[in-house]
Amino acid sequence: MKTFDSLFAELSERVAARPEGSGTVAAFDKGVHHLGKKVIEEAGEVWIAAEYQSDEELAEEISQLLYWTQVMMLKRGLGLDDVYRHL
Ligand SMILES: N=c1c2ncn([C@@H]3O[C@H](COP(=O)(O)OP(=O)(O)OP(=O)(O)O)[C@@H](O)[C@H]3O)c2ncn1[C@@H]1O[C@H](COP(=O)(O)O)[C@@H](O)[C@H]1O
After folding, report:
1. What Enzyme Commission number(s) appear in the record (predicted)?
2. CA–centroid distance, residue 75 to ligand 1 (Å)
């Protein structure tokens, strides 16, 4: 099963290798403004799912929020340690 760390490694590799058709690369190239909107959108969907939807739907929305947060981290050049040291 994928973890936060293994997804971050995968996305780091995608951004470095820039494979054809990668949604991550396309989103990365759009920049911080686009990524910020995705983070906000997914955060809102997490809230709505927590209020009104199933555990499974909530878990899926949380996974998407984690994904977009990671793409933002990569765009700003942050690594896992930069974040973990604040936990
Ligand atoms: N985990 C994710 C992931 N989570 C969310 N998303 C993106 O976030 C969007 C969220 O879906 P929504 O339903 O909220 O939005 P949507 O309306 O369908 O999509 P938009 O029109 O808003 O882009 C998805 O459509 C994906 O574009 C993800 N995109 C990729 N991954 C993983 O990232 C890795 C690299 O993916 P690629 O770069 O696409 O190869 C792979 O392991 C993927 O599984």
Report:
1. 3.6.1.31
2. 16
Residue with tokens 């990671």: 70
Residues 27-79 have pLDDT tens digits of 999 999 999 999 999 999 999 999 999 999 999 999 999 999 999 999 999 99
Tokens of 36: 């910020």
Supply the pTM of this predicted model.
Answer: 0.95
12 ligand 1 Cβ < 6 A: no
What is the whole-number distance in angstroms between the Cα of residue 43 and the centre of ligand 1? 14
58, two tokens: 């909530």
